[in-house]
Amino acid sequence: MAPPQRKSLIPTTFYEHARNSRRLYWLTPAIVLVLYLCVMGAFIWLQRLHSDSVMFVTIDQETRQERLLMVILALSLVIVFSLLALWRYTRFRTQAEAALIAETGFRRAMENSMSTGMRVFDMQGRIAYVNPAFCRMIGWNEADLVGRTAPFPYWLPGRHDQHRETLAQLLSGRTPSSGLEIEAQRRDGSHFTARMYVSALRDPQGEQIGWMTSMTDITEPKRIREALTAAHERFMTVLEGLDDAISVVADTPEGLELLFANRIYRRLFGAQTAGHAELLGGRLGRFTDETTEIHSATAARWFEVHHRMLAWTDSRRVRLQVARDITERRKHEEALRIQQEKAQLTSRLTTMGEMASSLAHELNQPLTAINNYNMAAVAMLKSGSASDAALLQALEKASQQTERAGKIISRIRDFVKRSEPQRQATSLARIVENAVGFADIDARKRQIEITQIVPDPMPDVLADPILIEQVLLNLLKNGVEAMEHSEHHNVLLHITDQHPLVEIAVIDHGHGLRNPERLFEPFYSTKSEGLGMGLNICRTIIESHHGRLWASANPEGGTIFRFTLPKAAHHPEPAEATIEDTQA
């Protein structure tokens, strides 16, 4: 059975002080009453004296009336003075009470408008006062709480021991200045978290009479704080788990200041700004978002560095840098480049194998002519009828045929020879001449003509001549082969100057495109004997030259292959080998 509840001592103390102060209020009315009694007593006394006293016997009637009147006037003046004093005091008290009522109403309005719950404990741990905010917070009325002792209705079931410890800490004055975080229960059974601050409550004489507590519902702020903390932890977990080196630095007069670095950055460069500065790659004054590839000598690795300017939490402009390790990718790219070079060489060798018989026939003509001119010169010398002019003409013609054969062999050697790609300013006219020269051999066998529409003068391009010859020869050969059974016998090579690019188009009237979306896929070929690598290699070559290769249907039937190359800024030096070099 719960112990009987006793009324708190805190209100009694204040009311007693108020009563002690109001005892002086009755002093003036008491004085007035005493004076009134004095006046009445004096009046009765004078009436008796009037008949009995000797003094009044010797005095005539008029004198006695004057003396009595003077006494009455004197007493009346005393009464009037007392009444004026009483009126003045009453007026002062009325004003004080009005001010007190206004002050009380103002403080009550402030108290009712507060969102902080206020609660007062007396020295025995009873609830002596609660404000409306506290009642709204827990859902209980003031009448249900004032005078209650532990356990309180807002304590959590099953956790009363913990609440008693908190109450004992509160009553002993050992609460921290930063407050206490407590759990409480509303009347509807829902739980909430509050932060409680405690201060001593003292009477006007300075004696402590209880404890004032203020409580603020921090359920939602705590939830938000915990959510932000969890989000921050997840974010930091993600950043620390990334394989990229992430760092943030700020520019200061003393240099770079490292604000953040994740695990990978610290492992590679330590907790210093030297790694960030090294990966900046000389962009210290540039406030632009960039992505570059930088080789770090410190880490001995290649990085793809994303650089961005952003506003830090203190509004400073800082540098965010994300460095992705691409060392393995660079190795794979280098291996792929080598494989592509091998594929290009294989493609050239395959092309030479297909052209072997045609080249033998092509070389047979100048060799036969050389043999005939030499035999004619020998015959003229044997007959003794040879003139110097005839011999010179025969030898010059033989020399011309020798030069022709040498050019054919030189082009074949340059085409087949494996070399590193060398982008240089080169003559597009020479590339077209060599590629058309090779393709024309096969075209004549198929009775197909290669027609050229080129600008005059032909622009120079920035390219590797051997690789571009291979691309153009491959496209011309595809066009010739596509028109083998066509009623048309003309492949058009159309070159247009589209500054700063040059567009080369190979237009045929063959069977057209069957699967244009798969045309440039590796190992896809429309020819039964094809490997499906030709067009894929061609596109890789053109894209490595910062150009573009694409195909479209010819409105007149067939296919149009187009590719672009950048124009050169200057004219190239002659690169064709001389006859002596070829013969050597």
Principal-axes shape call: rod-shaped
Report how far apart the termini are. Answer: 123 Å
Largest sheet: 5 strands, antiparallel
Number of helical regions: 17
Derived from helix and strand composition plus strand pairing, the structural class reads alpha+beta
Taken as a percent bin, the fraction of beta residues is 15-25%
Q: If you average the pLDDT, what whole number results? A: 77
Residue share in helix: 40-55%
Our Rg estimate from Cα atoms comes to 57 Å
- The largest beta-sheet arranges its strands as 2-1-5-4-3
Spans of at least 5 consecutive residues whose pLDDT stays below 50 are 1-9, 528-533, 571-584
How many beta strands in the DSSP annotation?
17
Concise account of the structure shown:
The protein contains 17 helices and 17 strands. By secondary structure, the chain is an alpha+beta fold.
Structure description:
There is one protein chain. With 584 residues, this protein is α+β, with helices and mostly antiparallel strands. It contains 17 helices and 17 strands. The protein has helices at residues 9-22, 27-52, 54-58, 61-113, 132-138, 142-145, 160-171, 219-241, 263-269, 274-280, 327-354, 356-383, 388-416, 428-445, 465-482, 534-544, 579-583; strands spanning 117-122, 127-130, 180-185, 191-202, 208-217, 245-252, 255-261, 290-296, 301-311, 317-325, 424-427, 449-453, 460-463, 490-498, 501-507, 549-553, 559-566. It has a five-stranded antiparallel β-sheet, with helices on both faces. A five-stranded antiparallel β-sheet has the order 7-6-10-9-8. A five-stranded mixed β-sheet has the order 12-14-15-17-16. 18% of the residues are buried.
